[in-house]
Amino acid sequence: MAMKPPKSLEALIADGFIDEVIHPLKSGKEAAVYVVLSEGEIRCAKVYKAANKRGFHKQALYQEGRKVRNSRQARAMEKKSQFGRKQQEEVWQNAEVDALYRLAAAGVRVPKPHNFVEGVLLMELVTDEHGAAAPRLNDLVLNQEQALEYHGLLITEVVRMLCAGLVHGDLSEFNILIDEHGPVIIDLPQAVDAAANNNAAKMLERDVNNLAAYFGRFASELLNTQYAKEIWKIYQTGKLSPDTKLTGVFQASNKKANVKSIMREIDDARDEAIRRKYEQND
Ligand SMILES: Nc1ncnc2c1ncn2[C@@H]1O[C@H](COP(=O)(O)OP(=O)(O)OP(=O)(O)O)[C@@H](O)[C@H]1O
Ligand SMILES: [Mg+2]
Known about the structure:
2 domains; Transferase(Phosphotransferase), domain 1
């Protein structure tokens, strides 16, 4: 059953990008998300809110090193004229579309983007096993094994993103959906260019620490891990790949840590979790 479409989607309906607006999914500070029918498929439409309703000033941190199309655009953005704001708005929104394409190509699990028109992003709706919008990680209660498994998968996704040149910049239990195959990462307008942005290491650390803190509620052994520093260090040597074996231990000094035993403990728990899961499914 369709709803009366919101003003923000009227143009896309008129132009045939959307056939029907089915229901609103979520409306927050940054965006309003709708479930829509588009090209015969159930998809999701993300409508960005205006910059002035979104904490405009914080964007500077993220946008360092981001490419603008031409010098006129760059000058305008600096001046914060009305035109400048509009340009900056466009850069912000495009950053999410660019990131989605880039990450999908790198094998990161993100919603498949379909279209970006009139400030609206049309993308795949991530669903649960019934076809309804998938829950956010934050909506689930996990056991220790699931927590370790998802944490491991997400650390690998963070590495894959970094290998594709990006740091999410706002990764948390609110921006990860869980479908029947596991975690899917969403909400990327603030994604930062790892090589060009001086804040990238800090943002990676925050993202990775958010994961440890969240999953650490269910698996306390994760609370002392230091994947971010380890990942960044290997990234800087140019040798990081999604297959890099990580320990979660970082040695800033040359004090000896028992890396092997900590690594083994975490690996064992994860393997055990995966084994149990497959036993259950048999
Ligand atoms: N592709 C998708 N499939 C399913 N649900 C989605 C998808 N994209 C977004 N959502 C839902 O919409 C919510 C908001 O999307 P998103 O996180 O991208 O926007 P936001 O800018 O963080 O907005 P908010 O301020 O509301 O968090 C998500 O938490 C999620 O529940
Ligand atoms: Mg979000």
